[in-house]
Amino acid sequence: MARIRPQLRRPRTIALALSLSVLVIGLAAFAVLASDDDERDGESVQSPYPAYESPQLFEFPGTWDDIQGTTVITTYPLQTSWQRMIRDAHPGSESVEAGTSCAACHGNAIDDQTTVYGFDGPPVDHYQSGGCIACHGGLERDVRELGQSLANREFAGEFGPGYKAGHIDVDVRAAYDDEYMYIRMEWESERPGITHDLFRYNGEEWERWSQPKPDADRDEDQIASFEDRIAINVADGDIPAHDGSSANFGSVGCYVGCHDSQVNMPDEVPEEDVDAHPYLGVDGIDAEEIAKYLLNSRNVDESGEPGAWDAVKSEDELDSMIHSGQFLDMWMWRGSRGGPLGFADDIYVLESRFGDEGSSAFSSQGPPFDYMFDPDVTGFYAIPEEEFEEHILDFPLIPGENAIEFDEDHEFQEGDIIPRRVLREPEGSRGDILAYSRWEDGRWVVVMRRELDTGNPDDHAMVPGRTYHIGLAVFDDHVGNRFHHVSFPVTLGIGAEADIVAVPLDEQD
């Protein structure tokens, strides 16, 4: 069976002719004003931002309040990679290679659970005797403590203690019916991150005016304006860390896809080296940078180390891995690129991170631009810089809703802002996941819906009665790539015993 051609990750400027009449778009709900209070747990919560709500393109055929939530703890990983975990400097390196779960030493990602599902861990008296600490020193045996310890370290260009929160807790609930899988996630976030790449007019020309943190904090001429995101990585069966390894996604989670060679990591590969690679470069998939990839997509290099960035297996081998399910299925909700239309992004990870077959919910523009804001809807052609915070709920650009064709003759003023991203309805396997999102008084709620079995080779079927290993990643506070929070692997049971149990809706209490 021929393999689906990977979606290229390098941004392109695309001339668009869009019609989004099939969508019901509701960008913002202004019913809650900045002065409104929300009572939670007896405390009054106030926010300077009005509430935001995406379109809801599906109805959940149940009641979420009747489904037990599971708190999954995501931690800040600093620059922790697979390579870092198996070095001698990590006291647990041999245990990792032997297939011992990270959580066995550092605590469970599930709140209030002391052991890992399916693994009893060391006996209680071993902990009480101080056996681990006697050998390993100041071992953080609680996953929140681990995240806080990493967040408080000075390391490789970080801004130091207090720059990132040590952990973000996510309430996860899941359900399914005869056709669909539903996953609801809720977490704290101070600001509705629904802006992304931006251009600013400097009086003579348009310039890129936004970066993710911490890059934006280093540049006085830039602002931090990257979207909030949450991603679910799903493994179907055991995905070995590399050929012959006892470690797998079920024991170390997303770290099997995180490497020193990636962007913003210690051994980041220069763009020119990536471009010159016969498969990853401009004559191949045009990856531009080393993103997430699975170790088992690489051969052992000349040094004998598995997972070298440039030791990519043959296309025939990669094709076989796709069709045997040896990849991570990633469901990613993006606060700016797709979320405002009611979609999540359906992507996967193997030799790189790719979009599923079809087209995404967003494209890139300018300069020159294809679109600007429709003044009849928004009251402006571009957002003035000094009013940026006031108008964050007016982003992004959606033709047919708040955007019109760009007028080159319009006299723009210095400080005018236009988004780089333009939204559109996704197509094909890339658009398999609908996602309703709501931000209010410092909390996001995102509900994803996907067919149990899409029939697409770049998706894992979710089969009732089976259990899957998953990992969560939360991108909060204007960050991209490795600056997100991540969980250790947890289990998701489709009507089966697991850390998170998807409830069959016909049996819901």
Radius of gyration: 23 Å
Structural class based on helices, strands and sheet pairing = alpha+beta
What profile does the largest beta sheet have? 14 strands, mixed
- Percentage of residues in strands: 15-25%
- How helix-rich are the residues, as a percent range? 10-25%
Which residues form runs of ≥5 with pLDDT under 50? 7-44, 117-136
CATH class: Mainly Beta
Number of DSSP E strands: 28
Overall, the morphology is globular
What does the average pLDDT come to?
84
CATH architecture: Sandwich
Count of separate structural domains:
1
What does this structure look like?
Strands 3, 4, 5, 6, 11, 12, 13, 14, 23, 24, 25, 26, 27 and 28 form a 14-stranded mixed beta sheet that branches. Mean pLDDT is 84; it is low at 7-44 and 117-136. The protein has one domain (38-507): Immunoglobulin-like (Sandwich). The protein has 509 residues and is of the alpha+beta class. The chain is built from 11 helices and 28 strands. The radius of gyration is 23 Å and the shape is globular.
